[in-house]
């Protein structure tokens, strides 16, 4: 067995990490995570860490669920792999497609499988182009996305995302993708300064979409893509007025709506799908992460009947797919995972019990001298750090207060994500009230240490 130092040295020598500054990593030393159970993981030094991020928003049923492991082992033994290209299928992929159609909102009967959320969003782009081409409207090419969105890391998915730092590396976005503003709370603060309440601000943010459509020419727009609640952008919960207006605008100009459910899907917001929480009616839905609770990679697109009918009845061959589309082992794990979510009644628990409890407990942090605001939706939440909580005055970005807080969390046995100065939690959906209390206690401790350091 290797020591932690040996793992760190081998890691530094060979492993290029995603979204990581390797110089900074080398100076601090990488943390080696060796096992997990429930909502906790352990590192190679034996420290227990409460994983308030569910890995990367994905381990919805928590770590160490034997039903998922057994499903994978059974499928690997029986048939580890077969494809769906050669006019062939596998019972397990069919069963999962059937199950997802049953769980999806009305009007979704078909699914296209991928390995990841990024590939699923690439698939969306190809699907909407194909759809409009088949309808004889090839001039409908532009896909509108939102600033501050995250939709993945391939060229197309990173272009759909609205992260300036990602766009700056490599000349993104690719042509045909444009962005509009979204109801971010800082913009809302600006709105409030102009006398807008939350609902008026939500309508204004939706109006930015309509303005963009009109500026481009409605007949050139293929689709609008958005997360029901922006996740990686900092858990931006929109005002209640926003989504109904967006839906009205998409309907009015006959624009396809893509709901990116990679984070919000499978119970995170207290419904099976985030669009059900915010009240939108998408034509396409991207999913990944929670479909297998991250135990194995799987993603896909739920294809609503409006698009599916055109593709199937007029389409001929859709020249698109992946070696692992409908991978039997991934599908078997997904089926076991969805069965467990149902058995444990997790979606209702998030909606009626743990989600409201998290909101209540996080609200107790409002008295902390570093906390400007708290926002949550189901089991995804953000704690906004502020230099001046009463006025909401932000920290100078050079302060890197979020990263400092993240470090104090980790040192105190808690994983939280920092998005600028927003601290994020999105714990496994199996978390209990007592565990939420423990988690919020650890958050307060990390805030105290961050404050001490800021004052020193
Ligand atoms: N879409 C959203 C909303 C996401 O949060 C993510 C990943 O965090 C993706 C897409 C990309 O998924 P993946 O990392 O599986 O490619």
Automatic annotation (TrEMBL):
Key words, A-Z: Aminotransferase, Pyridoxal phosphate, Transferase
Annotated InterPro entries: Aminotrans_3 (IPR005814), Aminotrans_3_PPA_site (IPR049704), PyrdxlP-dep_Trfase (IPR015424), PyrdxlP-dep_Trfase_major (IPR015421), PyrdxlP-dep_Trfase_small (IPR015422)
GO cellular component terms given for this protein: cytosol
Keyword Flavoprotein tagged: no
Cofactor(s) needed for function: pyridoxal 5'-phosphate
GO MF: pyridoxal phosphate binding; transaminase activity
Segments traversing the membrane: none
Keyword Iron-sulfur: no
Superkingdom to which the source organism belongs: Bacteria
Xref: NCBIfam families: PRK06105.1, PRK07480.1
Entry similarity comment: Belongs to the class-III pyridoxal-phosphate-dependent aminotransferase family.
Protein name per the record: Aspartate aminotransferase family protein
Native source organism of the sequence: Ramlibacter rhizophilus
